[in-house]
């Protein structure tokens, strides 16, 4: 399989004409994963809760892609305020407690769209052949 496959999440939609992610061969790439609650559509004002919800949404995305958090090789985090890096560390350490078995990570500051979003993540996962 060398052709790109779009990853959809049944029951979840957004207004942008982009997929939630794509898979090429055994590599899975996410689009931006937001911190809104998929059931209610609500976005917490608390950056740590948004980060936790990003990780929950990441797990849902990975499941629909045929992957798990153990398959993640890189996570990119975008923060409105770079001083909020600690907010991403808590769910990060809960997800990957073993310091010898964590994906690579990069965090950068970004200008989020209006609406209160303070954090967004992207992941790359590699599946076993």
Q: Can you put this structure into words, describing what you see?
A:
The protein has 129 residues and is α+β, with helices and mostly antiparallel strands. It has one domain: RutC-like (60s Ribosomal Protein L30, Chain: A). The chain is 22% helix and 26% strand. It contains two helices and six strands. Strands 1-2-3-6-4-5 form a six-stranded mixed β-sheet, covered by helices on one side. Strand 4, helix 2 and strand 5 form a beta-alpha-beta unit. Helix 1 crosses helix 2. It is globular and about 40 Å long. 28% of the residues are buried. The model has no long low-confidence stretch (mean pLDDT 92).
Tell me what portion of residues adopts beta-strand conformation.
Answer: 25-35%
| CATH topology-level fold name | 60s Ribosomal Protein L30, Chain: A
Cα end-to-end separation: 11 Å
CATH A-level architecture: 2-Layer Sandwich
CATH class: Alpha Beta
Shape descriptor: globular
Helix vs. strand class: alpha+beta
For the secondary structure, the number of strands is 6
Largest sheet: 6 strands, mixed
Which properties best describe this structure?
129 residues, alpha+beta, 60s Ribosomal Protein L30, Chain: A, six-stranded mixed beta sheet
Topology at a glance:
Blueprint: E1 5-7, E2 21-24, E3 27-30, H1 47-64, E4 72-79, H2 85-95, E5 104-109, E6 119-126
Parallel strand pairs: 4-5
Antiparallel strand pairs: 1-2, 2-3, 3-6, 4-6
Helix pairs in contact: 1-2
In brief:
This protein is an alpha+beta fold. It has helices at residues 47-64, 85-95, and strands at residues 5-7, 21-24, 27-30, 72-79, 104-109, 119-126. A 6-stranded mixed beta sheet has the order 1-2-3-6-4-5, covered by helices on one side.
């Amino acid at each position: 399989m060398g052709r790109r496959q779009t990853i959809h999440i049944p029951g979840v939609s957004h207004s942008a004409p982009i997929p939630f992610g794509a898979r090429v061969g055994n590599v899975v790439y996410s689009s931006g994963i937001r911190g809104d609650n998929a059931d209610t559509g609500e976005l917490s004002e608390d950056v740590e809760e948004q980060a936790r919800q990003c990780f929950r949404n990441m797990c849902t995305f990975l499941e629909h892609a045929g992957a798990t958090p153990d398959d993640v090789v890189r996570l990119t985090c975008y923060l409105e305020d770079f001083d909020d890096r600690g907010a991403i560390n808590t769910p990060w350490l809960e997800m990957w407690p073993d310091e010898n078995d964590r994906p690579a990570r990069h965090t950068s500051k970004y200008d989020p769209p209006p609406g209160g979003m303070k954090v967004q993540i992207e992941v790359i996962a590699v599946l076993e052949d």
